[in-house]
Structure formats: C-alpha cells, structure tokens
Amino acid sequence: MITHTTLNSRDEWLEARKHSIGGSDAAAIVGASPYKTNIALWEEKTGRQAFPDISDKEAVRYGVNAEEHLRALFALDFPEYEVFYQPNNIWKNTEYPFAHCSLDGWLTDHEGRFGVLEIKTSTIQGAAMKAKWNGRIPENYYIQLLHYLLVTGADFAILKAKLIYHIDGETFAQIRHYRIDREEVSADLDFLEEAEREFAEHLKNDTPPALTLPEI
C-alpha cells in the first residue's frame, strides 16, 4: 500500500527523513553520489555523524526558491499533465518499509497514468559538468528518480532542469526535460531495490556496509 501524508512543518519533515532511505540517499548507496559515500550515509543514519546542514548554501537557496516557479512553468508548458504539489510531503510504500520519498510534484496524464515531477537547478562549471547533462540525466539524479518510481509506484518520471551558465560576465539559462518510463527501466529498478534492501539490513543490524566505489 502506498501512502502520502503532509507533515505540519519543515522541521517535522526534516526529522522524518532521517529515519529511512530517501531519494537523495539512493545514489550514495550504489556509489553514484558526488557528495558522500555509502559509509558516510550509514554513519549519518545511525547517528555516528551529524546530518550536514546545507540550507545556507547559495545554490541550495536558489533551488528552493526557484522550485515553485519552475513547477508553475512546467504546468504552463505541458497542459497535457495535471500537476499537483503539497509542501512537506512524505510518500511511503509497505513493499519498501525502509524507504520514503518527498516529491517536487506529481502528475497525471490524459490517460490517467501517474507520474513524478522532479525539479533541479544547476550552475554548470566546466566541460565535465556540462557533459553530465548532454543527452542524459546525471547518474545521481537518475538513481534518485528510480527511487521515486519504486516508492510511489509511478508509471513515469519527468526531470525538469534549469542549467545556468556564466560566460564572459553574462548569465545564460537553459531548460531541459528528461523522461523515464517505468517499463523501460525494470532491470535498474530491481538493482536499486536489492541495493537499498541490503543497506537497510546494515542499518537494522548496526553493521557498516562495505565501501561501494563508483564504476570507472
């Protein structure tokens, strides 16, 4: 059974996210996060390290403030979808009791299919970072979308990305959209589910997982 609740405050929402695996955790579990290892995540979830507070970072503040406007722009540009959102939302699924997710939005199409909307903003710094977005979703965000598909049971996920470039003293922005259909990524969903279940056992047993390194 899939449940969707809205918590009373952001502080309550932040606290609820600490106790299970969320979308932003999934990439670290499989070695695809540029920010932390699965060991660091395990230490945070088991209370051995404090959860980092990144709310005061300029890029984070920009992303939070831009989200509502980008969601509204998506609704204007894609009227074939109904767009829904509630702040401080938490989704859970009894098939995956170790997991949760919080969505930037959720969708229904004209056929009644249910989808997930994820919104990202990113300042592109250098050719390597630019290449991560060329014709594909960066791996850590792809894993995050897979996690959302698992928890919500959604038929598809759409990523709306605003990419910002600073060139010769001028600022340029580019909007991109990427779509994932559940039926096309079943093997990746199975892989992520297995990895998350294994990580959840390490949390339950209070035993550290082996370090997962990114593939070269």
List strands and helices in order, with pairings.
Elements lengths: L1 E5 L3 H8 L5 H7 L8 H8 L12 H20 L4 E3 L4 E5 L11 E4 L5 E10 L3 H5 L7 H14 L3 E12 L2 E12 L4 H20 L11
Helix pairs in contact: 2-6, 6-7
Give a description of the structure.
It is a single chain. Helices cover 38% and strands 24% of the residues. The chain has 216 residues and is an alpha+beta fold. The protein is globular. It has one domain: Lambda Exonuclease, Chain A. Strands 2-4-5-6-7 form a five-stranded mixed β-sheet. The chain has a two-stranded antiparallel sheet with strand order 1-3. It is built from seven helices and seven strands, in the order βααααββββααββα. The longest helix is centred in the first third of the chain and has 20 residues.
Q: At the third CATH level, what is the topology name?
A: Lambda Exonuclease, Chain A
CATH architecture: Alpha-Beta Complex
Q: Reading side by side through the largest sheet, how are the strands ordered? A: 2-4-5-6-7
> What is the rounded distance between the termini?
38 Å
Write down the overall mean pLDDT.
93
Number of helical segments with 4 or more residues? 7
Structural class computed from helices and strand pairing: alpha+beta
What would CATH call the class? Alpha Beta
Morphology:
globular
Count of separate structural domains: 1
User: Strand-and-helix sequence, N→C?
Assistant: EHHHHEEEEHHEEH
A few lines on this structure:
The chain has 216 residues and is an alpha+beta fold.
Summary tags:
216 residues, alpha+beta, Lambda Exonuclease, Chain A, five-stranded mixed beta sheet, two-stranded antiparallel ribbon, globular
